[in-house]
Specification:
heterodimer, A: Rossmann fold, globular, B: alpha/beta, Methyltransferase, Methionine Synthase (B12-binding Domains), Chain A, domain 1, Rossmann fold, 2 domains, 5-stranded parallel β-sheet, 9 helices, metal-binding (chain B), Met_Synthase/Corrinoid (chain B), 5-methyltetrahydrofolate--homocysteine methyltransferase (chain B), transferase (chain B)
Chain lengths: 217, 230
């Protein structure tokens, strides 16, 4: 199992293949969670967990996530006793949950990573009062241009910012780590979108809780 | 287009101009669309023909290419922006000249959801297809939907959601309509990125519409069927 990660662009476009299949349990995660999953794994010393990541940019086409997960699970079953899917619903409208049920594998609870980093219960509580918030995580702050600015066409057509973000009023940076560089970058992203800025430290939230639960099996 | 600057729209014949307007819509060229609309009107075209043959037909190509993954949201938005500019010229004229009326729709994004790109596209394409559209905007409670239904008496209620967390609210609206005995009075169409046909059926909608073009076709078919049964 590798403990060093490729750069964020690779995690976005290609994901992470498990280089050495040494563990008993495979975590199939979104590439946007690679750093966080490895951090939690290292902190717990759980060498029996291997990590494979699917390209983070699948989020630009959520309808492709269930099929990508299915293919990864099919391959992993030759090697691993247990497979766990580190995706929430992620805009699949319940289709990923259905797919995981069919494949008899478990997945994360919650609608998306913003929710499980905050803690699903806490996120549900604040959701109603925060509907005009746009969220970024550590990964998304680092990949803001690749995930937001360029795919939305803002680099070529800044007039689209108002059309797409006109109903938002603030950008909430859900910080998994304390990093002043990311804080500044998130604040700059808020300014570029014309939104107010708020930084909220979440740590790894329910992601850490779930990985710990899997590791204890 | 590489030779865009060389094309003088007023020098094209009607057929060429309409095709050029389809290209210009595809490229999201707002000013060119406004110019094209004005030229066709000056040549004596009926506003309804300009709308359907130049704008709606062009936007249908955009919609098909979006569905096929050739175009993406930014391109569609730019095209929509261009179409909107053309429609702004045509709208008052359509009212004067009495364009065909297909029916009436109340549309809005559900409570807790502020996303309106898809909804706005649907509203615009429905207007282009001859429907009168009352747009309730974003973050609509069940009360607001019902109030609009009672006040406007539309043929269709359209609900939109982008979030997995907000799409179940559509069922709240439909269930309330059932409780009040008014569900069968309206065609209920739902749409939004995380929805699918199964979800539409499960919540009791009449149809899930995967994009604006499908919404228009579904609306036309269902309104015609509804009127035939009256």
């Amino acid at each position: 199992m590798t403990d060093t990660l490729p750069d964020d662009n690779t995690l976005t476009e290609a994901g992470l293949a498990p280089e050495a299949r040494t563990g008993r349990v495979l975590l199939i995660a979104c590439g946007a969670l690679a750093h966080e999953v490895l951090a939690v794994k290292r902190a717990g010393g759980w060498d029996h967990l291997d990590l494979q990541c699917l390209p983070a940019n699948l989020h630009l086409w959520p309808d492709r996530i269930p099929a990508a997960v299915e293919a990864a699970v099919a391959e992993a079953r030759h090697t691993y006793q247990q497979v766990f899917i580190l995706y929430a619903d992620c805009g699949t409208g319940g289709l990923l949950q259905q797919k995981c049920r069919d494949l008899r594998v478990e997945m994360l609870e919650g609608p998306h990573c913003y929710s499980f980093f905050e803690g699903n219960d806490r996120f549900a509580e604040i959701a109603e009062t925060e509907i005009t918030a746009f969220y970024l995580t550590d990964f998304l702050v680092r990949q803001f241009d690749a995930f937001v600015w360029r795919p939305m066409g803002f680099d070529k057509h800044p007039e689209l910012i108002q059309m797409m973000f006109g109903n938002y009023d603030k950008l909430v940076y859900q910080a998994q780590t304390d990093d002043p560089v990311l804080d500044a970058k998130a604040q700059a992203a808020a300014e570029r979108l014309g939104l107010a800025y708020e930084r909220r430290f979440t740590g790894y939230g329910d992601l850490a809780v779930e990985i710990e639960r899997i590791a204890a099996r | 287009m590489a030779d865009e600057d060389d094309i003088i729209l007023s020098e094209l014949n009607d057929e060429e101009l309409v095709l050029q307007m389809h290209d210009d819509l595809y490229d999201g060229l707002k000013e060119e669309i406004e110019e094209g609309v004005n030229i066709l009107l000056e040549r004596g075209w009926a506003p309804y023909d300009v709308l359907t043959k130049a704008l709606v037909a062009g936007m249908t190509i955009v919609g098909a290419d979006f569905r096929d993954g050739i175009l993406f949201v930014p391109e569609v938005l730019l095209a929509a922006n261009a179409m909107k500019a053309g429609m702004a010229i045509l709208k008052p004229l359509l009212a004067e000249t009495g364009a065909p009326r297909m029916g009436k729709m109340v549309i809005g994004t559900v409570k807790g959801d502020i996303h309106d790109i898809g909804k706005n596209l649907v509203g615009m394409m429905m207007e282009g297809a001859g429907f009168e559209v009352l747009d309730l905007g974003i973050n609509n409670s069940v009360e607001k939907y019902l109030e609009a239904l009672e006040a406007e008496q539309p043929d269709i209620l359209g609900m939109s959601a982008l979030l997995t967390t907000t799409m179940p609210y559509m069922k709240v609206v439909i269930d309330t309509m059932k409780e009040k005995g008014m569900r069968e009075d309206y065609i209920v169409l739902v749409g939004g990125a995380p929805l699918n046909e199964e979800f539409g059926k499960a919540i009791g909608a009449d149809a899930y519409c995967r994009d604006a073009a499908v919404a228009v076709e579904t609306a036309k078919t269902m309104v015609a069927r509804k009127h035939n049964t009256l």
